Amino acid sequence: MRDGSKLETAWERILAASIVPLAVLGGLGSGMWLMHSGVAPAQTVLPISLGAFLVAITMERVLPWHEAWNHSLGDLRTDALYIPTQFGIGALFTPITASVAVAAGGWLSEQVQGGLWPSGWPVLAQVLLATVIREFFDYWGHRVMHSTDWLWRFHATHHSPSRLYWLNGARAHPGEIAFRFGIVGVLPLALLGVSETVLALTTIAATMADALQHANIAFRLGPLSWIYSIGDLHRWHHSRERAEADTNFGSVYIFWDAIFGTRYLPADREPPTHPGLDGLDAFPEGFFAQWLSPFRWARIERNSAAPPGN
Q1: What is the pTM of this model?
Q2: pLDDT of residue 90
Q3: What is the DSSP string of the chain?
Q4: What are the residue ranges spanned by the domains of the chain?
Q5: What's the pLDDT score for residue 1?
């Protein structure tokens, strides 16, 4: 097995350090070019997202962190089914949430002279501010899902994989998708009156990093490990040890974890290579069974506690 912690050549070390910044800058540049060419901002996100996944797939083969994770464990079909689920639920909830928030934001802007959002700032400065705000709300949304029992039952689906690779970043229960991405991820920015262009660019920057977050790539983030929750930081978040999993809550970025004391990156050991749900061996592996899992939680816990063979 190749040890991803030991990069053998200079070009591997350079590649490991440059993947994330090049992907994010490339995504932003592509988005701005498409918009300048007349493509509607909302329509730029999907093609750039597909490009991000192609980067992740390629780099998993070129620079794997854990060689065994590049081989299917019978999870490919389940993970693939979550892709249209995530896009479908996002497409359903996002316009509804945004419409309500834009209407409310318009009313609030009338009450606040000059509006709530600094629309006169340079676009990239607005994207940076939108990123900080969006991540703040998603950080707390994610953290609450870990600390609240009934919400954890929905979020557990995301922690159920026994390997991390590019595709299972999308493994999330529909209830979580509606809550975190349809409401928490859209409502605050739309309420503040963020423009469609800024919202699209903010989403693109997050999507480029998010596509790499679960990727089985031997990243070397260096100082960027204080910005992005990618690579080892997110692998620790998927530890079977709950105390380790209850860290690194940043959806894409890690700076709110640093501020609130939940950033976890021990220097003396590597992240675990066997992620999953400790004590829940009976958690279902099938797509539709996972949809029903929050409502069958007592049965899952009972079957997990039963002696083998019973």
Answers
A1: 0.89
A2: 64
A3: --BTTS--SHHHHHHHHHHHHHHHHHHHHHHHHHHHTT--GGGGHHHHHHHHHHHHHHHHHHSBSBGGGGS--S-HHHHHHHHHHHHHHHHHHHHHHHHHHHHHHHHHHHHSTT-SS-TTS-HHHHHHHHHHHHHHHHHHHHHHHHHSHHHHHHHGGGG--SS--GGGGG---HHHIIIIIIIITTHHHHHHT--HHHHHHHHHHHHHHHHHHS--B----GGGGGTB--THHHHHHT-SSHHHHSS---SSB-HHHHHHT-----SSSPPPSS-S-TT-TT---SHHHHHHGGGGHHHHHHHHHSPTT-
A4: 10-300
A5: 38
